[in-house]
Amino acid sequence: MRVLLERFIHYLAVERGLSDNTLSSYLSDLEQFITFLEEENINSVHALNNQHLIEYILLLKSNGKAPTTISRNRAAIKTFMKFLVNEGILENNPSENLQSPKLSRKLPMTLTMEQVDNLLQRPRIKTTIGLRDRAMLEVLYASGLRVTELVSLDLGDMELNKGFIRCYGKGSKERIVPLGSMAIFFVTQYLEQSRVKLIKKPGEKAVFVNNMGNRLTRQGLWKILKKYARAAGISEITPHTLRHSFATHLLENGADLRAVQEMLGHADISTTQIYTHLTNSHLRKVYDSTHPRAKNT
Predict the structure, then answer these.
(1) What's the confidence (pLDDT) of residue 297?
(2) Which end of the chain is more exposed for a tag (fewer CB within 10 A), N or C?
């Protein structure tokens, strides 16, 4: 089974072009699944049936795994089983009727516009590192990029004179994202004043680099974000908080849902629609506080 798993991961990487992070997730989940099967003395995919899969899902539930984790594992197993059928290794798909746990719809945490402004003001832009950090935060909020997309930016992806950047999202899908004047200003200042001091290798392609002149990592950016969040008095923040805030603020100010979907790089508009729940809540508050007949007299 582990040999088949290697073939499956290779297929996901080469034919479907999934990212390293997604491949790692598939590999981790399916290795745990195979370990479970081995402990049950099931050493061949031909011995698998639907009951084995159900028992594994129930085991995950009994171990207190979150519904999102269980759902992800189920999806990985189903994709693996479908691959085995398509390759002619299995005649029937044992995961065909494997049910997923119901997921509670958790709204993403966003910042108010005032909180965003406070956060963006935290870096000391007169310093080399502070100017870099201000440029990064401005781009995150102006574009809605994922953290991985931001740190993956190369100099060739920047079209600042045209007002946009090019990034590569999940599945290496390219998309063009516009930038506002503030983000363009601070990125330009960073490239001209800070980056030239930080880079050690003339051929470095990364836009955002660390103190050693190498491409900044996701972990490095996360530490930077948390530092400024604490300074701004923001207790709860995630690597995607500025992305969520970007989408919510656009919709609150009248942006088209399809346009926001495209900027975020969502394959399915239903993923983007979660932000409408946040904006509906905002509209309710505005209505209650402004309409003369909204309140009881």
Answers:
(1) 46
(2) C
Contact 262, 268 (CB under 8 A): no
Say whether 243 is catalytic. Answer: yes
| Statement: the pTM of the whole predicted model exceeds 0.70 | no
Residues 7 and 81 in one domain: yes
User: Tens of pLDDT along 256-269?
Assistant: 888 888 888 887 77
| Through-space distance between the first and last CA atoms of the chain, rounded to whole angstroms | 70
Looking at the structure of the chain, the number of domains it has is 2
Is 266 one of the catalytic residues?
A: yes
Show which of 191, 216, 240 is a domain's final residue.
240
Q: Are residues 120 and 233 in the same domain?
A: yes
Q: Determine which one of 74, 132, 134, 146 is catalytic.
A: 146
Residue-number span of the structural domain to which 54 is assigned: 2-86
User: What one-character DSSP code corresponds to residue 158?
Assistant: E
| Catalytic position from the list 132, 195, 243, 244 | 243
Which one from 170, 175, 218, 226 is the annotated catalytic residue? Answer: 170
Q: Which of 132, 134, 195, 240 is catalytic?
A: 240
What pLDDT score was predicted for residue 4?
Answer: 92
Contact (CB, 8 A) for 98 and 57:
yes
Q: Is 275 a catalytic residue?
A: yes
Sign of torsion, CA 228 234 237 241? Answer: negative
Q: What's 140's domain CATH number?
A: 1.10.443.10
Distance between CA atoms of residues 109 and 243, nearest Å: 10
Decide if 245 is inside a domain: no
